[in-house]
Design a protein that fits this description.
Layout: H1 2-22, E1 33-39, H2 44-57, E2 61-68, H3 70-78, E3 84-87, E4 99-112, E5 120-121, H4 123-131, E6 148-152, H5 157-167, E7 177-179, H6 182-190, E8 195-200, E9 209-210, E10 212-213, H7 220-224, E11 231-238, H8 244-253, H9 256-264
């Protein structure tokens, strides 16, 4: 009788093991699947950091983060070429209709070469420099050398916000070097003594120097206080309200841990 009971118990254990082998066990984080995130190259570095942490917490998830610019991010979300589009500017009226989730706020910093003695510019001076009306650093208290302009490419969210918040009705000079990413602008300015450009607050490194605008430096505290006004939202775009794995990832981004990571990356948390 005892042998029969043991035999039956053995059969139950074997059956349980077979059934477990037939299905895929959920990973420790509980989520499975793949997400594609595409768009703004300013948002891209933040997305890469956040997605890496989410994948560490959810080993069954893979998140592919790509650049391409804000306009490309809007298009990718609208055409469902990506699960999440990234934009570093407000959407234009004709782009509305997507679900928008602001995940952080950013400031646009005006940068120069570290050796440049100019530490502060007025809004009017920045506008005149990028319009080409001021062509020498001597005109703003610097050395008697020609200013080298560095702009972003058409479709860049950074360019769009810069034009909207800084240039107003002025047209950008056509004498500028055009670069297609935050990193490329930073590299050009860091290796060109007389260059001036603009990058995301999160894109600031010791390679370049950020100048104060109207006496206010581009810092997280100054953006939070509303003192530094050249700021913009970082937005995740989805065709409709996020669901499933996409929602789980965005919820993480907006969580206490996710927003702490936003601040650590030099950006302004929204929660």
């Amino acid at each position: 009788m005892l042998c029969t009971s043991r035999f039956r118990l053995l059969l139950v254990v074997i059956a349980a093991l077979v059934l477990a082998g037939c299905g895929k066990a959920a990973p420790p984080g509980g989520h499975l699947g793949t997400i594609t995130v595409a768009g703004s190259t300013s948002v891209q570095p933040l997305s890469e950091v956040l997605s890496q942490r989410f994948m560490e917490l959810n080993p069954g998830v893979r998140i592919n983060v790509q650049g391409g610019g804000s306009t490309a991010g809007v298009k990718a979300a609208r055409e469902r070429a990506a699960d999440i589009g990234q934009s570093s500017r407000e959407l234009k009226p004709e782009e509305k209709g997507l679900h928008e989730t602001v995940i952080a706020r950013d400031a646009i910093a005006i940068i120069v070469h570290p050796s440049n003695p100019v530490r502060e510019l007025t809004s009017a001076q920045v506008q005149a420099i990028f319009a080409g009306r001021l062509a020498s650093w001597k005109d703003v208290g610097g050395p008697d050398r020609a200013i080298v302009l560095v702009n972003r490419e058409a479709g860049s969210g950074t360019l769009g916000v810069f034009v909207e918040l800084v240039m107003g009705k002025d047209q950008l000079s056509d004498r500028a070097i055009v670069q297609n990413s935050t990193g490329a602008v930073r590299t050009t300015v860091s290796t060109t003594r007389d260059a001036v450009g603009y990058v995301s607050l999160a894109g600031l490194t010791p390679e370049v120097k950020a100048v104060a605008i109207d006496g206010v430096s581009p810092t997280i505290d100054n953006v939070l206080a509303g003192k530094y006004v050249v700021s913009r939202p970082f937005i995740y775009l989805t065709p409709q309200a996020p669901e499933g794995l996409v929602k789980a990832y965005i919820d993480f981004v907006l969580s206490a841990e996710g927003q702490a990571m936003v601040r650590k990356e030099g950006l302004v948390p929204v929660r």
